[in-house]
């Protein structure tokens, strides 16, 4: 709080009292839980860190004496790292993602987990059988049958599992492993029903702060709230988040409503991130939802917002967007708009990114499999790491004629030059070095005459030379004979041509991926490491960028969860929408509005919205009539 007291009063500290209020809640006896109401860019993370610093100063002795810690739940591993760093890696605070937090609670309760799983599996099987009896045959029936078989098998093996395992960042495919949604469900159930689990939580973590609480799983959030209500004298919850930024379907819809009367509800007013024009826009977007209106910093720039509309069927969207970026450079008087890497382009989903960046073919077969999806998107699949962390850097170094890097990659990663191999080679070490050199040449030969190999060509080449270790997931494919590989390729081609997904196995997915071009490896790696200028609307939660281009294109997005056409009033609401609205239930329009709020509020300087629609004129009229954009800010572009 010293920071606050010493801060110069330039009119930008109007929310400092909120941090004071939170500290009071944290210092109070009995503890007072709180829900921080704060919109985009208001410094929620800053307040969270400030709260932790207060706890470090005022409570660390007492907590340590009792062997207790402060729990902090946040959304991504990256956010965990950031918070841990900002509080000086203090072991007093356990910062974790939802999944690792709940796993530390339920881990070891194997008999209870077993009993829970038994009931769950039995009920799922009964449910599937019921549907099966009413089903009309076809693929759905076959899928259900398979699902019933798998669940029945799992049920039968349950008694033999002595200990359950779980990795918050992994695939969890073993017989004894739990999957991601199971650990959350189990923890929610145990916290709601089992006094032992409730006691465990409150004695280990008498204070629990939850960041991005609007997206915390509904069942779990309700369980935490019920524990807090039951043990309000000993257990304190602090919720940080913004209900307008709820973008995942499993968050608690009415979070922040009907809180117990003894909770504090501090509210932040100032947006420290966005320029004035963007703040007016997001206030307008929010006005129909709640009354939270933000004010800009006293030193905020005016900022630039533009809304461009194009026909949905234009052929070359990326060229059109490039032209728009050039226009923005002039309008915003900011030449940096001409540098693609300096503009954050937000698209609705990963599929669109994969298509636009040119890695869709390798992406699609892997995305299709539930167990591969997460690893594909965060770049942790070992089968892919082989290509992007070993082969790609080597090939790039070869292309750049950088023999120093080539040598260092091979020395570091090739089993041909590992310490054990070299030791075993004795005085024949130079032969081993020659072998490694030949292996690199063999690999490089796949690129001769400007060709680009497929992933499978690389895999087979490296398997033959032993240049790099082959990951386990690809081994069954790597060890095939030429004849077997030919047969497998023919079978995959037949399945793809017939769009035959029946009995599709993970190996089928890998096979299909391997038959596509390695050219895609670089754009893929740029995307997953965040180096590409593209990101998804959802992926930029919590982030900010000087120049933001939001792409709105319902036609290129799959699924029905979002509809910008409905938000902009050019597509009629369905009967379902009206019914849901009446019942106070979630609708696609509400969901899209929140997503639009999140994307627009990422902008620190200027914002271009590029909307593709079949009805450009109507979109234009509607966004102007609603007062979201001035006439001078909207432009229909015909290319
Ligand atoms: N009191 C403050 N004074 C100056 N700058 C601040 C203050 N609070 C936050 N900021 C700055 O404002 C920006 C937004 O802060 P932060 O990302 O923490 O907001 P947030 O509420 O988490 O936003 P969102 O929910 O939109 O992701 C950051 O650059 C942060 O450093």
UniProtKB/TrEMBL annotation:
Instruction: Give one GO molecular function term.
Output: helicase activity
> What's in the keyword line of the UniProt record?
ATP-binding, Helicase, Hydrolase, Nucleotide-binding
Q: Which organism is it from?
A: Nitrosospira multiformis
Q: Which InterPro entries match?
A: DNA_helicase_UvrD/REP, P-loop_NTPase, UvrD-like_ATP-bd
In Swiss-Prot or TrEMBL terms, this protein is called DNA 3'-5' helicase II
Coiled-coil annotated residue ranges, if any: none
* UniProt keyword Ribonucleoprotein present: no
Q: Which positions fall inside the UvrD-like helicase ATP-binding domain?
A: 17-288
What does the entry list as the binding residues for ATP? 38-45
Source organism superkingdom: Bacteria
Pfam families attached here?
Answer: AAA_19
């Amino acid at each position: 709080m010293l920071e606050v007291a010493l801060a110069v009063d330039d009119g930008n500290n109007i929310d400092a009292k909120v941090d004071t209020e939170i500290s009071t809640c944290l210092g109070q006896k009995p503890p007072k839980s709180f829900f921080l109401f704060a919109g985009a860019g208001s410094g929620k993370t800053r307040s969270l860190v400030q709260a932790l610093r207060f706890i470090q100063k005022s409570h660390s002795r007492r907590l340590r004496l009792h062997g207790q810690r402060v729990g902090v739940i946040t959304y991504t591993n990256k956010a965990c790292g950031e918070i841990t760093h900002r509080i000086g890696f203090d072991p007093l605070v356990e910062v974790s993602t939802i999944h690792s937090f709940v796993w530390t609670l339920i881990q070891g309760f194997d008999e209870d987990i077993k009993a829970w799983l038994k009931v769950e599996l039995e009920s799922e099987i009964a449910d599937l059988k019921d549907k099966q009896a009413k089903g009309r045959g076809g693929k759905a029936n076959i899928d259900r049958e398979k699902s019933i078989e798998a669940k029945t098998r799992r049920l039968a093996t349950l008694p033999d599992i002595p200990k359950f395992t779980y990795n918050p960042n992994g695939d969890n495919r073993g017989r004894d492993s739990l999957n991601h949604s199971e650990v959350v469900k189990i923890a929610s159930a145990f916290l709601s029903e089992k006094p032992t689990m409730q006691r465990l939580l409150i004695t280990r973590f008498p204070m629990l702060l939850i960041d991005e609480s609007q997206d915390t799983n509904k069942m779990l959030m309700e369980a935490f709230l019920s524990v807090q209500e039951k043990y309000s004298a000993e257990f304190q919850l602090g919720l940080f988040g913004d209900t307008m930024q709820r973008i995942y379907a499993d968050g608690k819809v009415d979070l922040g409503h009907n809180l117990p009367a003894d909770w504090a509800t501090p509210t932040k007013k100032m947006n420290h991130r966005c320029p004035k024009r963007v703040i007016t826009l997001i206030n307008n977007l929010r006005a129909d939802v709640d009354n939270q209106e933000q004010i800009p910093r006293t030193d905020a720039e005016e900022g630039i917002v533009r809304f461009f509309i194009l026909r949905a069927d234009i052929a070359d969207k990326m060229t059109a967007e490039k032209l728009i970026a050039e226009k923005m450079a002039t309008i915003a008087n900011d030449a940096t708009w001409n540098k693609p890497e300096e503009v954050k382009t937000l698209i609705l989903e990963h599929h669109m990114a994969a298509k636009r960046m040119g890695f869709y073919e390798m992406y699609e077969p892997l995305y299709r499999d539930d167990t591969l999806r997460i690893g594909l998107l965060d770049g942790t699949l070992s089968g892919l790491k082989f290509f992007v962390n070993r082969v790609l850097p080597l090939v790039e170094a070869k292309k750049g004629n950088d023999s120093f890097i080539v040598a260092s990659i091979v020395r570091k990663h090739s089993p041909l030059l590992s310490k054990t191999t070299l030791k075993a080679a004795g005085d024949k070490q130079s032969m081993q070095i020659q072998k490694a050199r030949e292996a690199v040449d063999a690999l490089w030969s796949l690129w001769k005459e400007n060709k680009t190999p497929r992933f499978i060509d690389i895999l087979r080449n490296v398997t033959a030379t032993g240049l790099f270790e082959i990951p386990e997931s690809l081994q069954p494919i790597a060890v095939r004979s030429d004849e077997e590989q030919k047969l497998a390729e023919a079978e995959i081609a037949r399945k793809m041509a017939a769009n035959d997904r029946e009995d599709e196995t993970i190996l089928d997915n890998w096979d299909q991926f391997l038959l596509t071009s390695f050219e895609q490896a670089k754009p893929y790696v740029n995307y997953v490491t965040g180096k590409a200028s593209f990101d998804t609307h959802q992926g930029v939660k919590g982030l900010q960028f000087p120049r933001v281009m939001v792409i709105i294109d319902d036609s290129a997005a799959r699924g029905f969860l979002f509809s910008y056409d409905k938000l902009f009033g050019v597509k009629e609401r369905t009967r379902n929408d009206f019914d849901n609205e009446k019942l106070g239930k979630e609708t696609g329009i509400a969901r899209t509005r929140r997503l639009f709020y999140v994307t627009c509020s990422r902008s620190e300087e200027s914002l271009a919205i590029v909307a593709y629609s079949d009805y450009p004129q109507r979109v234009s009229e509607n966004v102007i009539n609603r007062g979201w954009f001035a006439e001078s800010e909207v432009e229909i572009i015909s290319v």
